[in-house]
Structures are given as structure tokens and as C-alpha cells.
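I have been asked to look over a protein record a colleague put together. Thanks in advance; the entry in question is below.
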Amino acid sequence: PRHDPLFPQEHGLDFQRLLDASAYKETYRQDMIRWGEEKRRTDPGFFCRTVVEGVVQPVWVVSDTRRLSDVEWFRDVYGDAVQTVRVVATEETRKRRNWVFVAGVDDAESECGLDQGVAFDWVITNDGDELSLDEQLETLLRSLRGRL
């Protein structure tokens, strides 16, 4: 729900440029976060309902969910069909991938709101070991196929 075309539509911005790691995105990041927080304050399910509106396929992946209220909404609406997956990497790995901590952004709820309070069904470690990652993903996929 974080990458939502509603913010750029309402503010006359280039949606595609907001999806990359450009300075353009960084210029508007704080405004997007504030806008999203205000929408969630008035209606916690706003973005979740937007994501599922008109969806008919039997399986879908909602990636990049950021807040406990989002996870709770999906669990309330879809129950046991929901499987939560957290992908983790060490801070060292993230730095090797050019991540740099930015105060006020990386410690905001939009970035770390799920660091506590969620019992994830799956935790996948992605520290650069391709074989390990493939094995973890294969186990996850086998389990999901078994639920269909």
C-alpha cells in the first residue's frame, strides 16, 4: 500500500519517478508519509480496501505492507487465508546494498511499524546466500501450494 498512485494523482506528481530511488522521490517522501498517516488516522482500512478493490484472482501477494493496522485488516477480512512473510537481512548486508540510515525516515512507522507486535508466519533471510534463499522460498511455495 505504500506505493499508491493516489498521492501523486492528488498532488500532480510523476508516479513512475516516485517508484525509484531518485532525489525526486526523496523530495516528496516526507509529504507522502504525512499524507498516508492522515488517511490512516481517518480510516485505518483505506489503503487495504484500495488494494483489494476489484481483485478476483484466487491468490495474490500484497508486498511492502508497513503497519500493524494493515496486517490486522487483512487478517480480520481474510482470516486463515492470510500468510505473513517477513524478509530480513543484517544491517551489514543492507549497507553493502547501499542502504544508508536516514533519521526521521528509517525510524518512522512507515519503515519500522512491523518490527514488533506481529507473529509472522514465515521469516525469510536474504543475506546474499542464493542457495539458502532459494531453499527458503521453495519451502514457502510448497506450503502455499498445499493450502490451495
